[in-house]
Predict the 3D structure of the following.
Amino acid sequence: MSGGIRLSGWLTADSDFGELRLRRAQSSRRAEVGRYGRIRSVAWNRDNRRETGVTKEQRLVSTISGREYPFERIEEFAENGESLEVRVCGIETAKVRAGVHLWERFADWMPFDRTDAAISLGEGDTPLIPAGGRLQAVTGIKNLLLKNETQNPTWSFKDRGSLMCVLLARELGEDTVATISTGNMGHSIAAYAANAGLRAVVFVPPYTPQEKLMAMAMHGARVIRVAAPDYTQMKNTVLELAGRLKLRIVSGNGPIRVEGYKLIAFEMFEQMGRQVPDFIAIPTSACGHIRGIFKGYRELQKAGLIDRLPRMIVVQARNCSPVVTAIKQGFDHVVPFTDFDTVAEAITSGNPPGGDEILDKARRCDWPAEDVSEEEILQGQRDLARAGFFVEPSAATSLPAVRRLVDAGRLSPDATVVLMLTGAGLKDLDALKHQPCCGVIDTDVESVEADVAKLLNR
Ligand SMILES: Cc1ncc(COP(=O)(O)O)c(C=O)c1O
């Protein structure tokens, strides 16, 4: 499918960063903004007369109190800190359509009328496969499935979200996409921005792995490494300067990014022959991924395509577990973590904005939550690697978390459980210094035969 999303033209958005007036030069389309943020995008001919009208009605809704905002607000969070989500109207009558791309088949659920295939890097279509005996034994779950998001173009689940962010930036006529990232989102935004001809600016903490930094730089992103006592402080500093410099920052939990993650639910719905798993275990940090997948299933249910929802399993590293700790304690607000250290560097949002939504959903939908120790994460990474899946430490957290929940009697061995493998192992080779295994035998031409004979007991 080609052609831009039909949101182009003139938009005015109120922003924490002051009024952001966005005008797309030379546009042949104008957005007309109606009540409740309805965006009517209209094609105009040379005589400035309306040719066709296309509308898609949608709003931004705060995820706990349900307050409505116009869609063209284009913000990441409500002023009370709640995360915002897109409510696309008419989903009750949405239909799966014919199409090559997932976003074509599920176009009725997407916020934009069209997705530009030229912006895509071929994200998605990732395997959903049975985990096999070894990992079944590790977890105690018979129907264990792996959704291998490491097979995306930048080797993490971030790409479907970046597709949506870059689409929006381009349609708003922006020349820069900026983000704050521990690595994976920066890498993904850098790649998608490069393909779309936009500039990427990525703010990273000092502990971002070299592999991710180099990938961003290779895609041409401007990478700004900011020393700070912790990631939250670094984020706050960057958000403040972004406000002054009128730079729109896309976060890991923004409403448009979440619309991209919804596609994972649609893809699994197709892959499982319209069945729904009982549980989906998700390493969680900014909370965008978990809520995107759940939103996808909720919207399938709204359209009458499924009659029950999967339960999410919220997983975090124990050393940085603001969401899991709060769920376990029954709190309404996340418990901020500062001054921590974990090998799972990709899931280190110590005080995730909008994280309270996950506590609310966990309470209402009875989601299990589990945190895992550093030793368990490293063991999980080894277990997955020995089963053929080389993931980064953050992505390995869900394996031991599921084992813990089975041992605690919170998960039945008969449940169908999907583990989201969120990022590839080659993205953080430095983490392997914590692994005792090596497997490399150094030898030379004189000794190699003896060494191999010894290895094979011959
Ligand atoms: C490998 C990996 N797993 C999980 C997550 C957590 O996803 P989210 O921040 O959307 O909660 C991240 C976030 O960057 C990640 O990079």
